[in-house]
Amino acid sequence: MNEFDLIEKYFNWKNPGSDTFGVGDDCAIINTTANTQIVTSVDTLIAGVHFSKNTSAGDIAYKALSVNLSDLAAMGATPKYFTLALTLPELNEVWLSEFSKALRRLAAEYQLDLIGGDTTKGDLSITVNIIGEVETGKALLRSGAKVGDLVYVSNTIGDAAYAWQQIQQGIKPSDFYLNRLNRPRPNIKLAQQLVAVAHACIDVSDGLEQDLLHILKRSKVGAKIDLNAIPMSAEVARYVDNTQDWCTVMAGGDDYELCFTVPKTSADALKTIEKNLNIVLTKIGVITKNQDLEIVGLDKACKSYQHF
Amino acid sequence: MNEFDLIEKYFNWKNPGSDTFGVGDDCAIINTTANTQIVTSVDTLIAGVHFSKNTSAGDIAYKALSVNLSDLAAMGATPKYFTLALTLPELNEVWLSEFSKALRRLAAEYQLDLIGGDTTKGDLSITVNIIGEVETGKALLRSGAKVGDLVYVSNTIGDAAYAWQQIQQGIKPSDFYLNRLNRPRPNIKLAQQLVAVAHACIDVSDGLEQDLLHILKRSKVGAKIDLNAIPMSAEVARYVDNTQDWCTVMAGGDDYELCFTVPKTSADALKTIEKNLNIVLTKIGVITKNQDLEIVGLDKACKSYQHF
Question: Residues of B numbered 287-306 whose beta carbons fall under 8 angstroms of chain A's beta carbons: which are they?
Fold first, then answer.
């Protein structure tokens, strides 16, 4: 099997009603729509850095796509297309079959079309470049937070970092935590409803503390956060109670939840969104004028994950 | 220096008049234009596979961008934006400075904006996802070749593969050949003029034989090619004369020249393009009805480069 057969067998599929073409040409071609802007992001996952060597092909595919979907979510965009640059140590058809099946299933869920790619030989690494659409001028940015805004996060924080820590210690996390680490759900639907409500938004991939700092820096504001308000799942809450290790929660990263700010008048709108989507949104603090981040209850800043 | 400082220092620049924004957000935002389509492609370069360990940071940056520009050229598209996923073994500021300088210089030449990226730690690898624009319905495809069309290639074929072979044998190629290998010029201007003339087009990155086969397959036609018509630089022509090693020329790849088909009536238009751009376009054969590739003078098919 050569590179072309591999692409043909595992990566040549389209969603029903797909409007892309040119796949099989040097580039893919995308139609644009009036009054929309194109939104794009890229993320690389590397074996041993972003997932452990034991992670299944299906989980790797899922995560490679979902972390990019999460970036689109943070902008309030609708997913449309993606390209895949796949570096493989060997041609393993069992692995490829599982990888492509999981990729295709998640892509189909969002009517996301695979429109191009490149396969190369080397240490396992997956780069997804995702492309979405947003109504012109309506994208959620990091720069829109205003003094007095309430700061919210979706669902619970710290689950993925807690699971990763368990794995490092040789403990197998329960399915809930494994899924939070390996199969994070991108908050696409939530984000599309936040477009009408939120002033600023980011996805919590680098750790809540660091990602909130990005909003503050770009919005030229500060924030006062209440550590005790941070929403946590039961096991993580118990772990923090026992160890006082708040940094796993605040800086562990890999959460792919949304952190966003809304004006005080939007609290009711958020309740409606919570009900409609059966999701938990938690107020964790408020945007302040002085440009720093005060986390009430945290003694010192945590060290967030750094590649270098 | 952390990842954010690295991006700020080496990859946060815009071309004058850039219309992109959102860099620093989770995604970049691109404005679309009426009557245009978006064209996109992705290519990964890996140390030891696509370039030797001794290749300079500037040459690597140049090639990573130019091979993607070449894919846009093959579609007759205008370059607009790119994202960069960079995997680095270490944070080497001398290397990064040279890399970013060369990248920026080539990007500026085409008013190409760097709109997003990801830096990760691992074996050196560079994935560029390029985005261009083309007038709706005007993209050059592989599928448009018609029986009776003339088959052309731009400039000379085989230079890069010849240089690579010399390096493998411990011989330092002359500057011309090193540049053909490390700094291939994307044929953007040529392609934009071919849009009005050519029926089908591809860039010769995998080797002329294999890439022409892509056109034939997608167009459901055949071709008769004259080996003696293949344009070669002086040193490569001498090498082939001495060794009869046609496969380095026909299947070595890495040429980034354009192979395209035009109706017979367009021969004069091509002469004008040649003159305007000071470029050599050579007729190497003709499109035939029977769906196979006949290369007059070549005894057997060459084995093209395969990753696996």
Answer: 306
